Amino acid sequence: MSRKIKDTDLTRRDFVKTVGLAGLAVAAAGVPAALAAPEPPAAAAQPAAMPRRKLGKTGVDVSILCLGGMFDTINNQLLLRQALKWGVTYWDTAESYGNGLSEEGMGRFFSRNPEARKEIFLVTKLQTKGGKLTERLNKALQRLQTDHVDLFFIHSLTDINEMTPALKAWAAEMKKAGKIKFFGFSTHTNMADCLAGAAKLDWIDAVMMTYNFRVMNDPKMQAAVDACAKAGVGLVAMKTQAGGPGTPKGPGTAKAEMVDRFLKRGFTDKQAKLKAVWETPQIASLCSQMPNLTILSSNVAAARDQVKLAGEESDSLGRYALETEADYCAGCGNLCQAALGGVVPVNEVMRSLMYHRYYGEPELARLTFGALPSEVRQRLAEVDFSPAEQACPQGLAIASLMRQAKELLA
Ligand code: SF4
Question: Which residue of 36, 240, 253, 349 has the lowest C-beta tally within 10 Å?
């Protein structure tokens, strides 16, 4: 019978499946005894340093793993400390994460550990909706208990035209006031177009975008990434596990083959997905929500071990991507929205469903869904989604998923 790991409901086999052998080594090197494996591999004695890469024209060397702050940072102060200890020195938060509570948790950490603030490359974000950016940035800085952020992102850009001359002037003013060092945006909609546009704007320092093993081989995305790299725009990947909005299915043939293949090499399929992203040299860092020490140790191990995917392993990920294509929303919202005359931001609804089903975060899913205009939420049961389904390159069952979103998240 498998021995249960104390304080968790994971068996040792499940835990290895989650963090991989390398993750066990990292866990044993620094997490509380309750999570440490009894016989760590010898490599645990001398863990490798966290690799760093230059973030475009900012010139800053950031850790290749970024702590995504979309979780309860107030009650996870130990996790923040452990991330810093393991070299995860790029932290990302936003006003909208827990309605400011994520920023507040990081602020409490800086208040208790003032020296830590100097080591952290700190990023926060604001959506333009709601205006009053300066007032809201000041409040964010208060919550973070700091006088500046290293990088500020406009949150959730869907079209590069949202980067207006007024925003350019505001960014320059905030830089001059010392409140932000660098400026850019995040995007999980029409990412390739937004990136291509950013490459043409000399005032965008960095962009964080959805980027994973599913979208990275799209020639349009590759061209946009190259253009940004050439223009010196620093790039940060997010949504790297590429989860979808549908009900998780049992393992298909490609998934079973992929999981077995990676476990034989000592890492999990989740770690392999991170490695696939790091193999793009233009990506400076990868932002991951790491709300517990299991995920943190797994991701840190993947970042540190420097083992690259072999050709057949990349192929294995590719086969899995194909097998599950119809479960993934690729964020190309301009296609389905245009087909519907712009009445429903389909990929925003898909994102809410993804948070519920793939991330297992029903509260976050409801918050994201609830942020959509009420008339949009009302329309989900009435709109004829067949033109959007015809336009969708992933072949998603949009009508059915929109109805599920309304029932699940309203
Ligand atoms: S539903 Fe289809 S067309 Fe719309 S964003 Fe998702 S993948 Fe693209």
Answer: 253
Asked if residue 45 has pLDDT above 60, the reply is no
Q: How far is the CA of 350 from the centre of ligand 1 (A)?
A: 8
Ligand 1 centre distance from Cα of residue 331 (Å): 6
Measuring from atom 3 of ligand 1, which residue has the nearest CA? 392
Q: Pick from 240, 243, 325, 233: which is nearest to 279 by CA?
A: 240
Q: Rounded CA gap, 282 and 232, in Å?
A: 10
Instruction: Select from 194, 392, 400 the residue to mutate for testing ligand 1; criterion: most ligand atoms less than 8 Å from CB.
Output: 392
Contact in structure between 47 and 26 (CB atoms under 8 Å)? yes
| Tens-place pLDDT, residues 112-144 | 999 999 999 999 999 998 899 999 999 999 999
User: What's the CA-to-centroid distance between 336 and ligand 1, angstroms?
Assistant: 6
Ligand 1 center–CA 407 separation, angstroms: 20
**β-strand 149-154 against 121-126: which pairing, if any?**
parallel
**Distance (Å, whole) CA 265 – CA 312:** 12
Domains and CATH numbers, the chain: 13-40+47-319 (3.20.20.100), 329-409 (no CATH)
Is residue 298 within 8 Å of 88, Cβ to Cβ? Answer: no
Residues in contact with ligand 1 by the CB-under-6-Å rule are: 329-333, 335-336, 346-347, 350, 391-392, 394, 396, 398
Ligand 1 centre distance from Cα of residue 169 (Å): 33
| Percent of the chain residues topping a pLDDT of 70 | 88
Determine which of 287-291, 320-324, 346-350 has the lowest per-residue pLDDT on average.
320-324
Instruction: Annotate 45-102 with DSSP letters as a single string.
Output: GSPPPPPEEE-GGG--EEESEEEE--S--TT-HHHHHHHHHTT--EEE--TTGGGGHH
